[in-house]
UniProtKB/TrEMBL annotation:
Stored InterPro entries: Ig-like_dom (IPR007110), Ig-like_dom_sf (IPR036179), Ig-like_fold (IPR013783), Ig_sub (IPR003599)
Residues making up the signal peptide according to the UniProt record: 1-21
Keywords, ordered alphabetically: Membrane, Signal, Transmembrane, Transmembrane helix
UniProt key word Membrane: yes
Protein name: Ig-like domain-containing protein
Keyword ATP-binding: no
Cited SMART domains: IG (SM00409)
Residue intervals passing through the bilayer: 344-365
Protein species of origin: Culter alburnus (Topmouth culter)
Start and end residues of each Ig-like domain: 149-243, 252-334
Amino acid sequence: MNVVLFMTFLFVTYELVLVSSVSKYNAELPSRITALSGSCVQIPCRFNVSENSLTNTENIFGFWMKKNQSFLSRESIVFNGSTNIIKGFSRIEILGNLSQRECTTVFYDVMNNHSDNYYFRVETKPSVWKYTYTENPINISVSDSPQPPTLKPTDRKEVMEKITVNLSCSAEAPCPKQPPTISWSNIPQSANITTQLQEKPDKTQSVFSHMTFKASYMDHRRNISCTATYPRNTSNDSTVETTVMLRVLFPPKETHITIDPSASVSVGTNVTLTCKSKANPSNDMVFFWHKCGNVENQLDFGEQLTFTVNRMSGGRYFCIAKNDHGIQMSEEIQLIVAELSVPLIAGCVGGISALLLLFLLATLLRRVQKAKPSSESIVKETDQVILFFFRGLKDRLLPLLTRNIIKSHDPYEAIDFSTNCTI
């Protein structure tokens, strides 16, 4: 009885020692990696071994097994380092120096049926040490389309104008031998871009691109895109894209006035002046109207100024746009009130009166001639008198009409544009 208990004690003690000794061996692998079909996938790998097992070792071999962690199942072995036998893959290459405990491996031309868990195993010779790292499998997931690049910050908060903006775009590089290329589109002219291949904490790699620029009001609502293009051993490369909208806060810009129906109107016309400006935010923007020479200076507030034109409405108008970030004044616009020229009216009235008077005089003379027949010479003299009056009227009236018509069509003649309006 005592012998049985002693043997049981020795067996349990041996199992505990074995478990404790084995548990200190592990492989450093990412738990999961996504690969692109038609490309390669690189698995970063390091492992621990017994110091004694490497002391008298001349050769060390690496193995990879799919799905089944048991080395006894020959069907699960996809790579045998001792015989260089590869199953299910066109090529598998261990890049790491196994004597330095490095086991980084590249699987080439991966396909969808390669998706599964994989286990790493080490064997040494002539000192026999064999171990499968069953507690550290890696799951390889093969996809037909790559993951979209990550654009940070993903939710670009509003930035003030003239502030430096930093955007970063990263794309996974499961196959560093054929990394994706990153390109930017719809970027500001002042943008500065740097791109490089980086190693992540889990030892996998990605292509990282960083862009900086100073925000301008013209960049507001600009859609900036980052595109990653993956080379593949197929007919077409794979392209994926991520876009972010930039929002810029800025004071009023490009403030100007439009006038309807025109800048030259007559008395009694309804005129609408509209103040237009770009700003963000724009929903809280306010407008103020001013006229040069106005005693009260400010006419009204609001985006539009509407009034009926009178003789005093002519002059120079301007508006001011304001939001939480600043203020801007528009250029002045000249409103011309067109009126008929007084000399022209007087000239026209005088000319018409003279014509009527001359017509009456000619009619009277004709009647006198019919009542008292006269010689042919008297009739000719009368006709010459009438012709003389008409010619004289034409010589006097025509220059007057011409001069006043030309003057009435030059409404800007009396305006002095040399001085600017001040608030």
